[in-house]
Amino acid sequence: MRLRRLNEAGIDRFRNLLDVLRQTPEMDISHWRSVLEDPKFTELHEEDADMPEQKFSTRREFTEMFRERLGHCDSQSFQNDAGMWAWLSMFYFDSVCPKNACGTRKVLKDYAYIPKVKERNQVFHLLYSAWRIGELTAKYQSEKYAQIWLDENLSNLDSFTAETMKRLSLTRLPCFFELIYRLYWNEQMDCLRPGILKTRKDDVRCGDLTHRLPSVLNQLAVNYDLQNLTAEQLIPLLGPEFLPDKVGTKP
């Protein structure tokens, strides 16, 4: 199907359909297809792209398809295109909100499917966040380290992804993916280190991702050009609380 975007009426229609689906999660959504090409609700996107009808399991699968079909375009034009991202969410709804074993769907908050551009919660949009990770991966040539983001389920925005992607002070660092990987990923256990997320201000853990890393980076930025530091150069500057045996523990 040709790439389109939802107009204001189309976004309102999508919101209404999501509300109905929350009330009847077993509902057949095949009738949504009529909205996808309806000129009352959509308009053709200026990029002449044919979007394949397929189901994606991981963020990587979606980002690879997007890059294949639209990688030649100026990525800046996609960042604030709420209508396009909403249309894509509707078109690929079986990927962003799949049926479970019981044949029902768990519909998330609207912003998981309809982004609020120029707002902080834009990163909670499932497809936008996957695309953004893919864009940064290519920009920073960090495929090796970005696997812990890209190989996650497309229909779920986990706390780790939300916490990292919402912080511009992190994502603007060329060493972003390697830094987070080396600090917080336990290669032996193949999982994130415990105690690094959802920490309260009155229960901050050593080197945690929620509070300590942003704070320490802000302090270092006063004296260092973080943009020109590699992860290998930056990690020793963070201090002993960021050592593997310290991260996530109580001070």
Secondary-structure topology with pairs:
Layout: E1 4-6, H1 8-23, H2 33-36, E2 42-44, H3 59-70, H4 76-79, H5 82-91, H6 93-96, H7 126-140, H8 143-150, H9 159-165, H10 168-171, H11 176-184, E3 185-186, E4 191-192, H12 212-220, H13 231-238
Helix pairs in contact: 1-5, 3-7, 7-8, 8-11, 11-13
Can you describe what's shown?
It is a single chain. The protein has helices spanning 8-23, 33-36, 59-70, 76-79, 82-91, 93-96, 126-140, 143-150, 159-165, 168-171, 176-184, 212-220, 231-238; strands at 4-6, 42-44, 185-186, 191-192. With 251 residues, the chain is mainly alpha-helical. A two-stranded antiparallel ribbon has the order 1-2. A two-stranded antiparallel ribbon has the order 3-4. A hairpin with a 4-residue loop joins β3 (185-186) and β4 (191-192). The longest helix is centred in the first third of the chain and has 16 residues, at 8-23. 33% of the residues are buried. The mean pLDDT is 93.
What is the typical, i.e. mean, pLDDT?
93
**Fraction of residues in helix:** 40-55%
Q: Which blocks of ≥5 consecutive residues have pLDDT under 50?
A: none
Shape: globular
How many H/I helices?
A: 13
Order of helices and strands: EHHEHHHHHHHHHEEHH
Report the β-strand fraction as a percent range: under 5%
Largest sheet: 2 strands, antiparallel
Strands of the largest sheet, in order across it?
1-2
Q: End-to-end distance, in Å?
A: 55 Å
Oligomer: single chain
Q: How large is the radius of gyration?
A: 20 Å
Task: Say how many strands there are.
Answer: 4
The chain-level structural class is mainly alpha
